Amino acid sequence: MATKQENLSVLERSKTKPPKLYKVLLLNDDYTTMEFVIEVLQRFFSMGTEHAMQVMLKVHNEGVAVCGVYSKDIAETKVNQVVSYATQQGHPLKCHMEEN
To answer: Which of 5, 59, 82, 84 is the most exposed, fewest CB within 10 Å of its CB?
Structure first.
């Protein structure tokens, strides 16, 4: 019969690390309207109006802002959704992700 210490060492070895997290960033441009950026933040990042306005102003004033932090798959999906939607709507809005 295995001792508690032997069982613990097996459990410790089998622990997985949490996934890496990635920041989803919106970049400022001279063409995308502030209203459209707010719409994107509300639609794809579930932000309320006030929070979306704050993030939009950060993008506008500082050139970039974090929209959220997610696992890699979710961050990639968010980036693809934003870029696809912006393109469909005729906006050159840029969105990318980077490791947190």
So the answer is: 5
pLDDT digits (tens, 9 = 90+) for 14-67: 678 888 999 999 999 999 999 999 999 999 999 999 999 999 999 999 999 999
pTM, two decimals, is: 0.83
Which CA distances in Å does 32 have to 4, 10, 50, 94?
61, 54, 19, 10
Residues contacting 98, CB < 8 A, separation 6+: 22, 23, 25
